[in-house]
Amino acid sequence: MSPAMPFLPERAASFAGEVDALFLFILSVTGVFALGIWVALIFLAVRYRRRSEADRPAEIHGSLVLELTWTIIPLLLMSVMFVWGAKVYFQLNRPPDDAMTVSVVGKRWMWKIQQPTGQREINELHVPIGRAVKLVITSEDTIHSFFVPAFRIKKDAVPGRYNLAWFRATKVGTYHLFCAEYCGTEHARMTGRVVVMEPDAYQTWLAGGPAPESPVVAGEKLFTELNCITCHRPDSAGRGPVLAGIFGRPVKLASGDTVVADEAYVRESIVTPAAKVAFGYQPVMPTFQGQVSEEQLIALIAYIQSLQAPSAAAPAKAGRPSR
Ligand code: CUA
User: What is the pLDDT averaged over residues 166-188?
Assistant: First the structure.
């Protein structure tokens, strides 16, 4: 515990400084204007108070200069907020390509976290310093919000949806993790910690404990156990599309639209397969809603993501017509 309550939380992520600068800019602009309005209000109330029963003030017919001034100055200030805000927003919402992916599942009342190598953690997240970490956040029940003040990230965990957040930790240490969305009686206790470690210490930490099953391996097993493999055969003779190489690529749909096969699309295709059927295929796939947990969905997605197209020269087409 620090002796005094700081005005801003500690800064431990790459964009924390920029988020703070933007916040302080908006706070000062609105503060100065709020103060100005109060001063003007009091001054004008006193200056133009009614002095007698027969008070007849002079009529005023507007001032072009005044109106232009109070239009242009706020417009410029707001434009700065907009452009700067948009820049920071895009920065916060675009994880770098080399980021390591950590899955986060909110559940009343805990955070279930899985490292890219498979290690699972509850209410704790260990990360190496200096490395971009992409969080794929979802929820098993109600809406939660993953909030790490020191990193300036706060993202809702919404059931049935994957929200992305990312950070690059800049300081070794332990930081608070909160749930920032009221989610029931134990909401206030849905807290945890993020531990930022030196890369070596992180590797040692990963190596400790029982050898985990990576999401890709777990997903591959599920793919067989759930019989996905019978229709999604690797040789394109199945009733479903070949999945190798589709991740991150556009998929042509029966409706004529095209979607990118990202986490959200793959998830949707597992729980509600009829929603977006690939072009050239019949909507014969059964739903797996309720049969696979959020963790299993994440594993299946990781497995599908790991499937490379047979050859880079001839990538598998998602929209190959059925026999
Ligand atoms: Cu989970 Cu509040």
Answer: 94
